[in-house]
Every structure is written in structure tokens, then in C-alpha cells.
Amino acid sequence: MTEEAPESGDDGVSDSMVRGMVAEIKPEWQVTSIERSPHGTDFVGILSVRTPEPKSVVIKATTADFVDPVIARSEPRLLELVRRETTIPVPEVFGYCDDHEHYPVPFYLMEYVEGANYEGKHEDLSITARERLLREAGENLAELHDLGPLAAPGKIGIKDGELRVLDTDDYPRHEDFREAILAECEETLDGLSHGGFYPDLADDPERFADLVGDLRDYVRKHIPTLSEPEEPTYCHWDYRIGNLLIDPDTGNTRAVLDWANLSSAEPAYNLGQTEFYFLNPVADGPSRTNRLRETFRTAYADARTDWSFSESICERIEMYRFTCRLGAMACLPLWYQDASPEERNERATEHRAVVAQYIEK
Questions:
Q1: Torsion angles phi and psi, residue 86, rounded to 5
Q2: Which DSSP string do the residues of 260-328 spell out, in sequence order?
Q3: Are 193 and 54 in the same domain?
Q4: Has residue 4 been placed in a domain?
Q5: Any idea which of 82-86, 123-127, 292-296 has the lowest mean pLDDT?
Q6: pTM score, two decimals?
Q7: pLDDT at residue 41 greater than cutoff 90
Q8: Number of domains in the chain
Q9: pLDDT digits (tens, 9 = 90+) for 215-233
Q10: Beta-carbon-side half-sphere exposure of residue 273 (alpha carbons within 13 Å)
Q11: Are strands 30-36 and 54-61 parallel, antiparallel or unpaired?
Q12: Are 131 and 252 in contact (CB under 8 A)?
């Protein structure tokens, strides 16, 4: 995109604002072109700059209401932590701004990384490439989890300029992680009663309402009886293909993105989430699903030599996958707002079939 591009997009961030934000962080840089990313909910721009040598960088600013600023401010700091303390591939951060009178905050500048995004295009990846992604996911999450333990389960945010597990009215800590998961499920089920988390987008607000009673009985019965969780640590709650930049030739992960909204939780929670996002038993069948799961778990266990998939941990992982399913049901109106009614009905039928396996036990 060249200088003749539109002055601003639907996000309300003008080109002059972008240049001003860059100047706040890197006053010596000159912006020569701005390309607006169509992906994501916040403003993301790919910029050509002179530093004085030409280079491509990315600017990200919080412009939507999905992430609270106290949480969003943690993202560049988490990227710095992960880049400094692990081998997980993440972009270099060039600087950030937490507060500003005129610009959407927080915003930050980071390295541009070449790579393909396969969001919604799982079918374009070979089984070999998917195995490689899962193997690398296991290795990456093992390194991330070894950065703990943290003080308590909760949300990662910024307090006094530092990364902290928050303890506020909006983001309370829970001494017992099982209490946190049950509270999250109760909130999700409340939403499912009237259209999910995004009722304004729901074409059928009562799509799952008939299931809420049985689902609520299930989580109230089984979550409190789960075995004792492990100590909490950093968990990338949205580790999925859509947040990876992938080498289209080799399938290697070039960058792991979206480090806002990290949780402090036990490792099994993060493993359950990642398996939910990467594994699709309905499409792949049991044999391929088990093969992919084994690839992921073996890589994780090999990277954490003092850790193993015990029976109790596997039981908690299964429950966490179930809670992710509830979240996906509540997010269906947003995730499939551009899909056809047939596609939305297909996903709803899949969700119903899976949760039925739990509540009918």
C-alpha cells in the first residue's frame, strides 16, 4: 500500500495518528507507507519505515472493547519476557506507550515477521505440517510454563508498571483454580441462555438455551471434584493456528502472536485449550486425532523432564477441553458472523454432539 491509501479505516485511526504514534516511540523513524491489517479486533498496521535504513515493522493499538487496557498493557512486556527467557519465536518489541492524551492506548511497535496465517484454512496444511505445528506447540508451551510458578490463578496485567497477577473487582484472584473455572463456566452458561457472549450478533439467541440446565448441573457436579491443580504459571490461552505465522514451505512456526489476555493457570488448563483448538475429532476421526494428540503431548513431556501426563492430569485436561467447548458455543455468533446459516447450523450441531457425550454419561 502506498501514500495514496485512504487516510483512515473503520477503526478511526488516521494515517497522521499512526505517524504520531510512531514518533512517540521512535522519533527518529520516518514512516513511508501504511498497510492496515484486516485481521483481528484491534488496530494493526504494517509499516514501512526508514530507521534510517528501510525496514518493515508492525504497530498495534487497542481500539476495540474486547481487551481492557490494564490487560492490553501487558502484551509488549510479555513479548519482551518470552523473547528474553525462552526460545519461543516472538517478534522483537521496539517500544510501547501505556497512556496518551490523543492516541488509542496502549500501543506498541514490534518487528515484522514474514509468514502465512492459516486461520480457517486447516485443510491447506498437510498432516506432516500439522504434526510439526503440534510438536512445536508442545515445546513452546513447555518453555512458557517453566517461567512460573506465579502467585495465584488469575489474569495477567500491569500494576505499577510491572507484570502481575491482578486482584481487582473485575479480575479477582481465586485461591483454588477449580473455583475460577466453575465461575467462568457459570458466566458462560448465563450467556448461552440468551445468545452467548455476543447476543447482538446471534441469529438464533436461543440456539443452545435448552442445554443450559443440564450443562450447569454437569459442571457443578464435576469441576469441584477434580484433583488438586498444579501451581499456576503463564498460560497463553489462545494458542491456535490463527495466532501463528507459519513458514508455508516447511510448516515451521515463525512467530507466536497475541500475548494479550494471558492467564495465570495450571499447565493442564493451557494444554486442554490448545488441544481443543488444534484437534478436530469430528473431521479427523479418532485415529488421526490420537496421533496428533500424542505428537503434542510427547513434545511437551520431553521438554519438561520432571513432568508427566498422569491420570489425574489427563482427567483435568479433558474437563478443560469441555469448558473450551462451552466458550466456543458462546462465541459462535462472533466467530461465524460472516458464515452462512448452514455453516452456523453445522457448527452448532457439532457442539451439541460433543457436549452430549459429557452430560449423558
A1: -135, 175
A2: TT-EEE-HHHHHHHHHHHH--HHHHHHHHHHHHHHHHHHHHHHHSTT----HHHHHHHHHHHHHHHHHH
A3: no
A4: no
A5: 123-127
A6: 0.92
A7: no
A8: 2
A9: 999 999 999 999 999 999 9
A10: 18
A11: unpaired
A12: no
